[in-house]
Amino acid sequence: MKLRKASAITGSLATLPLVLSACGGGDIAAEEKENESQVAAAGDCGELNMAVNPWVGFAADAYVVGHLAETELGCTVNYKDLKEEVSWQGFGTGEVDVVIEDWGHPDLEKLYFEDQGGDGSAVEMGPTGNVGIIGWYVAPWMAEEYPDITDWENLNDYADMFETPESGGKGQFLGADPSYVQFDEAIVANLGLDFQVVFSGSEAASIAAFEKAEANKTPLIGYFYEPQWFMSEVPLVKVNLPEFTDGCQDVAQDVACDYPETQLQKIVATEFAESGSPAVDLVSNFQWTNDDQNLVAKYISVDGMSAEEAAATWVEENPDKVEAWMS
Amino acid sequence: MTSAPTTEPGLTTSPPQTPGEAPGRVAPRPRRVVPLWGWLVAVVVIWWVASRIGDGRAVLYLPGQETTDFQDRFTDLKADLIAGRDTNVLMQVVGAVSDAFNGVVEQLQGLVSTPDLPRPVPQIGWLGVLGIAGWVSLAIAGWRHALGTMASLAAVGLLGYWVDGMDTLIITFFSVAVSLALGLPLAVWMGTSRRVNAVVTPVLDVLQTFPAFVYLAPMALFFSLGPAIAVAVTVLYALPPVVRISAHALRSVSETTIEATTSLGQTGWQRLIKVQLPMARPSIIVGVNQTMMAALSISVIAGFVNGPGLGKPVLRALTAGSNQVGVAFIAGASIVFIAIMLDRVTTAASERSELVARGGGGNRRTHRIVLAVAGAAALVSVYVSRTYFSFAEFPDTEVGPKVAEAVQSATDWTTSHFSGLTTGVQETVTTVFINPLQDLVAGSPWFVTGLALIVLSQLLAGWRGALSSLACLTGIYVTDLWYDAMVTLTSVLVATLFVMVVAVVLGVWMARRRLVDRLLRPLLDAAQVMPSFVYLIPVLALFGPGRFTAIVAAFIYAVPVATKLVADGVRQVSETTVEAATAAGSTPWQLITKVQLPMARGNLVLAANQGLLFVLAMVVIGGLVGGGALGYDSVLGFSRGEFFGKGVSAGIAIVLLGIMVDRVARGAAERDRSAPGLLARLRTRTPAHHLS
């Protein structure tokens, strides 16, 4: 009995491929031959190792540049999903060529930039054109209902409203993903604000919190930034802190001012910069606006395209911008 | 809710919740003038009064973005390592290993997952993989499992993750192979020498509780990004179960058997090869099973350092926010399919090898014929998959996107309709449970809390427990993260309490109703292997970032294992006992509370211990969703180089918390004479996933 069942199954298994093969598709062997002849004719770009740091805006930049390197220059692009720290470590070993969007990492620059006493494995390659605006933001409904909340001097009047079970009797300020340089604990203390910084722990958690606050019309203030695709979904409103002046953020414990606007930079491996690969010019020329990046990021996070599809779509829609980079 | 007090008092370890119980009621104990619970209540009352007097002083709070000298030492160490990486000999040796790992993984990828250039497709296409996997399952586990295996793999393909799924399998199998190559000799050594055992066991404990997040960045200095580091991280995490279980199995080969072989004149080596290893084989396969599950559970973490496989799409969907929950789900579901497939096949293989060892296992000749026929079929499928595109690359289907969309709209609907209600729950639990307990544990002066914890350990686990708590607390003090450690301890205790309440209710229900068991078990299995990153976003949407959300994440992860242990324990209570109690007129309630739960006490203790370790394993994930404290410190250390030392310190503190709580639980169990054999089980069980 058992045998019969088992052999019936194996029997049908044996015929399955034969039946299926009748409707099989193309011929693998033919394409293999074709590839062999193509390999000989490939361009001189070689491999391009593109770090992909874990936020959507970064992926937008990386895949647009990568897409062009692949289709226009014939490079083999390896996308590597890595956090910032680990990406920079990879410059020296040749495993990472390009970090396409850097928000400023003084500690890493000290380790890897030659002019700052580092090992010289990384160099800067100009701005991406994107401007990072970091700061304190409130959910849009709050700015509408309490227009004066966008001035820090009025924040203490509203502190009660922001109290949560997490904030120990004070107003809750939602601190950001630990990846970001942030001085909020110092700012709160030095401006004498009646708030407690509660760290969200990740970008995903911050976004979820703001999304929920806007949907339920509950109060929320926290650290946020743009360019960020979420801003097009829920346009958070910035709170004005005392204006940034040069040097006001040099000593972490004494910070009592707003964050500066950041020119986002491209960082590349020194070895890559000197390699003469055609991809070097592409990376060096690449520049676009916050709106450009937000659009690609929206394709990915809201429309659900893969990063490759999103990049290809944008490139197709913006031939003039692309052309400027390819020259 | 009266179910909590039926557990051994030591194991919920949160005195404020268990003051009213009387353990003497369950099993006779030596009479004391003041009962144990009286002492516990007294300690807590004094503790509370002292915390009021302290009024927030001397709590050793360190702001989130500040570090101390002790912590900075690790940061400097790492900077030195980077500066000297071209000349460091160790790094060069590791570099060679790393290249070897990459080479093997790339070969395997060319075989089944990525195009093996100039071939436009891998050497073996999906149909061939299905054929081979089916045949292997047939050979080691039987035809039912062969079908199950093929169905699981096909499901991964239908969901659209064939390539990533193959990569996950490659990393898993290769890591398990490396773990076995390193782990089995180590296990043999441990199994034959008490001293080695005593040295290695704590190292394994540390490997399993130290959060992988913390050592990910420094590992990336040694191993190249991608396959090599994924394998290295996985091996570090997956090694302990196989070593532990195999060593235990080797030690438990009976004395008489060993004496008999010695009297026959066998050498130690012969005995090992001919007697001990074969006899321990079924247990060793269980160890392999646990190692596989551990390897899968870390596959998402490996995605943070470019580890190939299903971790990548899960993490990518996480960064894209609430619109991509459905996508994260189908990627996570693929991991679940693979995990359940590997678990079922290895479990069946273990049972089968036991059967064969006893001379059973059916007709050998028939088995061989079936295998030959199936082998021929597998070869045909390989051939076909090498020839035609549609059997090489898994065809695109609408299944994945459809499922993702359905899950997405279900999640959206739930979060938009219930978020008011869930916010209420979050606020109530935080105010009623978490905050008061945290005020006591973290809000008291450090020496008051320290003393209270040591006294409680003495009461529950004796002087040895008190001593180990003293050592662990001293260590935590040294890391300069006392306050954060106490906040984390609070959350861990609250989470474990919830886990146990739900595990007892569900476990008893499952044990008493076959149908419930059958419906719940697969759900529990899936909840246990579904990567937590998949449900973080919906949980965040419901509860917002905070300690409660961290507790929910830990709860989802830890409930399955605790529930299954409770259910197994209650079911093991002998039929005769239950019948006798029923005949004596017990109501179902009396039967549960007076007979079944007390008699299943050993398993309840085990469930609480495992629940705790599982909860502790989620502390870092909790840091990602607003849990703060040690979890946040670990994530911070991974995210930013200048805080690396703080991350390491947090890792050390987590390990110390784990050892402290575990030792107290074990000490309490040791005093419980009704739990023979329990300690051996506590040692072999691991926080790695245990399915089935």
Automatic annotation (TrEMBL), chain A:
InterPro entries: ABC_Gly_betaine_transp_sub-bd (IPR007210). It comes from the Bacteria. Keywords: Signal. Residues 47-317 form the ABC-type glycine betaine transport system substrate-binding domain. The keyword Signal applies. The lineage of its organism: Bacteria, Bacillati, Actinomycetota, Actinomycetes, Propionibacteriales. GO terms for cellular component: ATP-binding cassette (ABC) transporter complex. One of its GO terms (molecular function) is transmembrane transporter activity. Residues 1-22 form the signal peptide. This is Glycine betaine/proline transport system substrate-binding protein.
From TrEMBL, chain B:
Residues 1-15 have a biased composition (Polar residues). SUPFAM superfamilies: MetI-like. InterPro entries: MetI-like, MetI-like_sf. Its main location: membrane. PROSITE patterns: ABC_TM1. Keywords: Cell membrane, Membrane, Transmembrane, Transmembrane helix, Transport. The chain crosses the membrane at residues 33-50, 146-163, 169-189, 220-239, 284-305, 325-345, 366-384, 440-459, 489-511, 611-631, 643-661. It is found in: Cell membrane; Membrane. GO terms for molecular function: amine transmembrane transporter activity; carnitine transmembrane transporter activity. Residues 1-27 are annotated as: Disordered. It is a multi-pass membrane protein. It holds the Pfam family BPD_transp_1. The keyword ATP-binding does not apply. Belongs to the binding-protein-dependent transport system permease family. This is Glycine betaine/proline transport system permease protein. It comes from Nocardioides psychrotolerans.
